[in-house]
């Protein structure tokens, strides 16, 4: 059985499922080079997924749209505002703005312009082959089926999906049960995004920067008027959360903000605002986790394993707080936790509904395009670069890293999701403190306070990380043990935490081999890994883009396929 899944809106993407296994997945931004590619139809992503099996749309058994249909969304939003009418002018303005968007979507659907019909009906696909699912149901399915757990509690948190911002589920034996949901005015994602924009970053893009900014400050602000967490629940003041109408209230609440981040030490009071916001997010999430587990137990369900999805689940500091709370024995976070990961959820859910069988859990994220040696050499030959073919590219790269060189690494199938995991990466020696500043200034052209991540060889996590749990996707933060902080100083954040990737020979043999060589040479089983892109651009996809990146940055070498290029 073959299922093609796709989504539109923010982070459009597509994936192909074959007999319960994800065969291919990619985001549209990797093709059109527009970060997040908001509101682009994922045509190139769909074509790529089909090409991996030389399929036409007619040869796909089912097509699934990872969001509710326009009319269903319109009803859900309308019902939400009927049940929870606006209580202040900010909520009223937001309601009118959102309803306007929903009405426009509804009229588009009535005119036959809904995205899934516009493409598939024109191409002759039978309407009965096309399915769609609720946004938060897709989030829940992406976490539950991806985890491999047979039984688990599931918490989904994002800005909003249809009229929901937080949903609680339970998965058992392949089925999913909704336990509870919270609406738009309770959105932690909206609040975090609104303050992200207020602090000078882009909403729906720069939230991870606020998370990185927080350890430079202290949670000293009294913010109960913005968000309060207590025994009676979480209360969010929508005057501060409903973007863009919230910005004026935030400016009055937190005056004298400095939005310049080019100095080594980020500005006050920004750092303390970020720290307080992060602290409140963690406390609010712990409240919701406890509520979820208690609700599950009230249904006489086990509550030992927890799955997370939704964009808020990309907050690694929050995930660390959940894990270290000891509330659950097992925890799995969907690595593509944002909206792009819903293509997994929709495909897995439809597969389960059609077959009654569990789909195969997510094993890795190397699901994107791969380029042949001939294609790579053709790009290099046209580039004018000085390059050679290497007998052992991993060994040569390790020698360069140990000489403090920075190497762009382009190998194998591109990663799906927001993280570079050793296919499209920039690599460096983590033992040199100055390396962080060098890469930020000369390669990434980004704010100097932002940290870099370590990739480490399988089996070494407990050696240098506290409270370690398996972390192959960079979706969890851990404290570094004191004796290791100087050894890997370039990847330690100011609070001595890291967001690591454990690299396995079984899923990325060349990358694991390279790190193993580095370990043999230096005694450190860790390399610095950051994404192969510059600020504001998507991760590199093609050999031509890798060459262009190499030319316009101060990276020393490019390891692309079996070839090594230098300037």
UniProtKB/TrEMBL annotation:
The keyword Glycoprotein does not apply. CDD domains: ASKHA_NBD_TobZ_N. It comes from the Bacteria. Residues 399-567 form the Carbamoyltransferase C-terminal domain. One of its GO terms (molecular function) is transferase activity. Gene3D superfamilies: 3.30.420.40, Carbamoyltransferase, C-terminal domain. Pfam families: Carbam_trans_C, Carbam_trans_N. Belongs to the NodU/CmcH family. This is Carbamoyltransferase.
């Amino acid at each position: 059985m073959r299922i093609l899944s796709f989504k539109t809106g923010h982070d459009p993407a597509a994936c192909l499922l074959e007999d319960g296994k994800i065969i291919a997945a990619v985001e549209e931004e990797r093709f059109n080079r527009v970060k997040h590619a908001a509101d682009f139809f994922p045509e190139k992503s769909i074509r790529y997924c089909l090409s991996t099996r030389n399929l036409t749309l007619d040869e796909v058994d089912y097509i699934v749209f990872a969001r509710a249909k326009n009319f269903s969304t319109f009803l859900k939003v309308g019902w939400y505002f009927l049940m929870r009418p606006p209580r202040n002018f900010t909520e009223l303005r937001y309601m009118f703005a959102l309803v306007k968007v929903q009405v426009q979507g509804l009229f588009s659907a009535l005119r036959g312009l809904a995205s899934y019909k516009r493409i598939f009906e024109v191409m002759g696909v039978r309407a009965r082959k096309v399915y769609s699912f609720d946004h938060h149901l897709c989030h829940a399915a992406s976490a539950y089926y991806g985890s491999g757990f047979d039984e688990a509690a599931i918490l989904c948190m994002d800005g909003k999906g249809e009229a929901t911002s937080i949903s609680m589920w339970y998965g058992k034996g392949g089925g999913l049960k909704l336990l509870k949901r919270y609406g738009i005015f309770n959105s932690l994602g909206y609040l975090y995004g609104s303050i992200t924009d207020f602090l000078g970053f882009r909403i729906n893009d720069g939230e991870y920067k606020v998370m990185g900014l927080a350890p430079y400050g202290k949670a000293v602000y009294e913010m109960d008027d913005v968000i309060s967490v207590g025994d009676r629940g979480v209360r969010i003041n929508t005057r501060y959360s409903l973007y863009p109408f919230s910005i004026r209230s935030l400016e009055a609440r937190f005056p004298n903000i400095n939005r310049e981040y080019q100095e080594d030490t980020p500005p006050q009071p920004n750092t303390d605002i970020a720290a307080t916001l992060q602290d409140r997010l963690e406390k609010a999430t712990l409240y919701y986790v406890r509520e979820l587990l208690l609700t599950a137990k009230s249904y006489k369900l086990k509550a030992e394993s927890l799955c997370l999805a939704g964009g808020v689940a990309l907050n690694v500091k929050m995930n660390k707080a959940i894990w270290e709370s000891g509330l659950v024995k097992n925890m799995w976070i969907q690595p593509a936790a944002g909206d792009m990961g819903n293509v997994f959820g929709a495909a897995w859910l439809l597969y389960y509904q059609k077959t009654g069988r569990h789909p195969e859990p997510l094993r890795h994220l190397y699901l994107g395009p791969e380029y042949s040696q001939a294609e790579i050499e053709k790009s290099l030959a046209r580039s004018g670069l000085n390059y050679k073919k290497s007998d052992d590219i991993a060994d040569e790269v390790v020698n360069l890293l140990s000489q403090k060189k920075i190497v762009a690494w382009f190998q194998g199938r591109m990663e799906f999701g927001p993280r570079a995991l050793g296919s499209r990466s920039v690599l460096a020696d983590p033992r040199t403190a100055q390396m962080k500043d060098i890469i930020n200034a000369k390669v990434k052209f980004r704010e100097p306070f932002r940290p870099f991540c370590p990739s480490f060889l399988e089996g070494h996590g407990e050696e240098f990380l506290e409270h370690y749990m398996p972390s192959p996707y960079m979706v969890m933060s851990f404290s570094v043990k004191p004796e290791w902080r100087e050894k890997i100083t370039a990847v330690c954040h100011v609070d001595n935490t890291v967001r690591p990737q454990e690299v396995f020979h079984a899923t990325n043999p060349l990358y694991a081999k390279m790190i193993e060589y580095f370990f043999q040479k230096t005694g450190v089983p860790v390399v610095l890994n950051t994404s192969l892109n510059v600020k504001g651009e998507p991760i590199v996809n093609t050999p031509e883009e890798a060459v262009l990146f190499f030319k316009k940055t101060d990276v020393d070498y490019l390891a692309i396929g079996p070839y090594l290029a230098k300037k």
